[in-house]
Design goal:
The protein has 48 residues and is mostly helical. The protein has 2 helices and no strands. This is SsrA-binding protein.
């Protein structure tokens, strides 16, 4: 149940949230760092 929820959430994140992979993490704003951390958290939990 938990894994399928995070897989669905990860699919939604790919469509809705901006991609930040081409930017330097040190130059991101606090909001962009929060988005990056959230996307990482969802990705890690969807892979378990």
């Amino acid at each position: 149940m938990k894994k399928s929820f995070f897989q669905l959430l990860n699919a939604v994140n790919k469509k809705m949230l901006p991609k930040l992979s081409n930017k330097d993490p040190n130059s991101l704003s606090k909001i962009e760092k929060g988005i990056l951390a959230y996307r990482y958290f969802v990705l890690v939990n969807s892979l378990d």
